[in-house]
Design goal:
Elements lengths: L1 H22 L3 E5 L3 H7 L4 E5 H23 L1 H28 L5 H9 L1
Antiparallel strand pairs: 1-2
Keywords: Coiled coil, Membrane, Transmembrane, Transmembrane helix
């Protein structure tokens, strides 16, 4: 059921994006700087694109910047989790070593019963 809802949502989004794209096919010019500043500096980069590419490209660029921002922001949390995972693994090894030392010289069945109880 959820799969069909997801497909319906994706289909709806696709139809909306296609209709927006078809309605905004006119060409617009993107300029790096205003004309007065470009005259002062002596150069200006401009690019002619359909309006829907400008709009959808802006949304996509915003998403990418947001994902990168969050990934950098959460770095400290991932680092702490890695350290805690490493410590837990080391402590488990130490517990196994101590249990082995405790049961050294005992019968294997008695050692298993001691661990279980």
């Amino acid at each position: 059921m959820m799969r069909y809802i997801r497909y319906a949502l994706l289909g709806t989004i696709a139809i909306i994006l296609i209709s927006v794209s078809l309605a905004n096919r006119q060409i617009v010019t993107l300029k790096l700087m205003p004309d007065t500043l470009a005259e002062l500096l002596g150069f200006n980069f401009s690019l002619a694109l359909p309006l829907f590419l400008v709009a959808l490209g802006g949304v996509a660029l915003g998403l990418v910047i947001g994902f990168i921002w969050e990934w950098v922001r959460e770095h400290k949390h991932r680092k702490v989790a890695t350290v805690k995972h490493r410590e837990a693994r080391q402590l488990k090894r130490e517990v196994k070593k101590l249990q082995k030392q405790k049961h050294e010289g005992k019968d294997e069945v008695l050692a298993l019963l001691d661990e279980a109880g």
